[in-house]
Design goal:
Distance between the termini: 54 Å
Strand content: 5-15%
Helix content: 40-55%
Shape: globular
Number of strands: 11
Structural class: alpha/beta
Strand order of the largest sheet: 3-5-4-6-7
Radius of gyration: 21 Å
Largest sheet: 5 strands, mixed
Length: 417
């Protein structure tokens, strides 16, 4: 029951001293000046649920949903409280007690069935010209589809990345064989990221396997409190990637990387796949991390790229996985690049996946501070290692008519090969 959910993080809950350090760094508090948006307030609510003092109501759900899971509070907590774990566990408790909202239940019902998800994506790709207006910077809704009229989305790819790429790409003289986990956005939207990853990995001298049966990493289920679905997805991927026998698993998104490296071992701990999940975690690397420090790309072969760049560090890649220096090292290794750092590169952009659907105005307000930081650099290109961050930033740039282009780190590397 819900108390049992929260009992798993009781030690984290009681570590909180209510000092307020989280308030100083919370992107949502900075915009709202509302104490319930702060970590310490949510921890106190979680404690009340644990003790049976507070029922799981819709109003309580709204409090726990008001979080970007950016982990800024975790990074700045003097007691080391894992606020993100508490929030996810509290959401699971509320979901068990109240059920998932219809939109979330519908979306998760689609992503749990890979063939259905692919069919929906293929249908939407064909219909997007009818449902959305095309413009130079993306597509905007034609009809009230439950979306903000001002939303700008990247179009869906005509053919998903995995559907047009062979299951294995051999490399002559390869000294390593890796599996590429594409994630949903690189498969259905930013397919050029997948192409760039293949090119960069081949240049590093590794053979690449892209399993067709891979699916969503499961983090959307976990973040919405659907723990059983997240478990189902974790089991599926651990079994799939174990059977491949590859030396490493490469991810293209910090959130997907977190799922493989951090959440799968936690979800499956103590079960028959626990050790396998832990072993898979040790072999999982973000692509920038892999190309710089695990299986280094020969940067001496990189061609000159004349461009002014800055870098946005995704929360789940930086604070989540600790991948902070490798993307910067790769960027700076490219001849001709003028790199101008952001004042606060690790500050959350406000995207946070489905948060932009449920709290769009707030997400846009958080994003504005990031856009202001980008503008002051005078850079032409914003590089990032997360396609969800990219989507959110591209929308803000398009809405304001800014000149910057956003690209994935591996796309930049591939352009220099």
């Amino acid at each position: 029951m819900r108390q049992a959910h929260l009992a798993a993080v009781e030690e984290e809950i009681i570590k909180c001293m209510r000092c307020g350090n989280c308030q100083a760094v919370c992107p949502l508090y900075r915009e709202t000046r509302w104490e319930p948006a702060v970590a310490r307030g949510k921890i106190r609510l979680a404690q009340a649920v644990l003790k049976g003092e507070l029922p799981c109501t819709f109003e309580l759900k709204k409090r726990f949903d008001l979080c970007l899971t950016c982990m800024a509070c975790v990074a700045n907590c003097p007691s080391g409280v894992r606020v993100d774990r508490i929030i996810l566990t509290a959401r699971a408790a509320v979901a068990e007690a109240r059920g998932l909202p219809v939109p979330a239940r519908t979306a998760l019902g689609v992503i749990r069935r890979p063939r259905l998800l692919e069919g929906v994506a293929r249908t939407l790709s064909r219909l997007q010209g009818l449902l959305f207006r095309r413009q130079a910077t993306g597509i905007t809704p034609r009809f009230p589809l439950g979306l903000e009229w001002r939303r700008i989305f990247p179009p869906l790819a005509p053919v998903p990345f995995r559907n047009r790429i062979p299951g294995e790409t051999p490399v002559a003289g390869a000294d390593s064989r890796v599996a590429l986990f594409t994630g949903c956005l690189a498969n259905f939207v930013y397919t050029a990221v997948g192409d760039a990853a293949l090119r960069a990995l081949k240049a590093a001298g590794v053979a690449v396997v892209i399993p067709k049966d891979q699916h969503c990493c499961g983090y959307p289920a976990l973040v919405n409190g659907a723990v059983e679905l997240a478990l189902e997805m974790a089991r599926s991927h651990v079994q799939l990637f174990r059977a491949l026998g590859c030396d490493a698993v490469i991810t293209l998104c910090g959130t997907c990387g977190e799922a493989f490296k951090l959440y799968y071992p936690e979800l499956l701990a103590g079960g028959p796949l626990g050790e396998t999940a832990a072993a898979l975690s040790r072999r999982t690397h973000d692509i920038a991390q892999f190309l710089w420090s695990v299986h280094p790309l020969d940067v001496g072969r990189l061609r000159k790229v004349v461009a002014s760049l800055t870098y946005h560090e995704p929360c789940h890649l930086g604070r989540g996985l600790g991948v902070t220096e490798e993307p910067l090292a790769l960027i700076r290794a490219i001849p001709g690049v003028r790199f101008v750092p952001l004042k606060d590169p690790a500050r959350c952009c406000g995207g946070a996946g489905s948060f932009t659907l449920t709290h769009y105005n707030l997400a846009a307000a958080v994003r504005q501070r990031k856009l202001d930081d980008i503008v002051q650099t005078g850079s032409d290109i914003v590089v990032t290692g997360c396609s969800a961050c990219r989507m959110h930033l591209e929308e803000g740039i398009a809405q304001q008519g800014l000149p910057q282009k956003v690209m994935h780190t591996v796309e930049l590397i591939a352009s220099a090969l």
